[in-house]
Specification:
Number of domains: 1
Number of helices: 4
Number of strands: 0
Largest sheet: none
Oligomer: single chain
Amino acid sequence: MTRRKGLLTRIGDAMEAAKEKAQEVGSSLAKKAEGVATDAKREVGKATTVVARKARAAKRTVTRRAKAAETDAKKALGKAKRAVARKVKSAAAGAEKAAGRVKRAAGTGSAGAAKKAPRRKATGAGATLERGVAKVKRAAKKAGAKVRKAAAAAARPPAKRAAKKAARKPAAKAAKHTG
């Protein structure tokens, strides 16, 4: 019986030792799992910060580009207005000049001038006036086209504008073909 008791005691001692070893291993695994979880949290925090920073930078870029496009549109509109005013002024001066020519031609006493006066009136003054009007129309068309183009660029969503601008860069095209 003593021999049997010794065997049972040894089995019990082995069980105790195994139990202690299992507890040590369990606590070690728990510590490792905690460390891994903490590292994962830290990496998520870093990634969130980076993404937020890039989003803020992109927002600032889009705002800046929109403001620049708006400024460009205002400049183009001002330029167009000045061009139209200049052409109108030029046409008015041309018409005034032609009217002066007609008046002078009609006012001379010679028969030759009297014969030429109606022809000059029809061709000289009318043609000058027509050219002036045509100039004004062309300037107005150009100004309208510039304004429409600037308005279309300003109306385009900022992300689309940025993508379109990036697509025009040679480095972006090269990267697109290689990768």
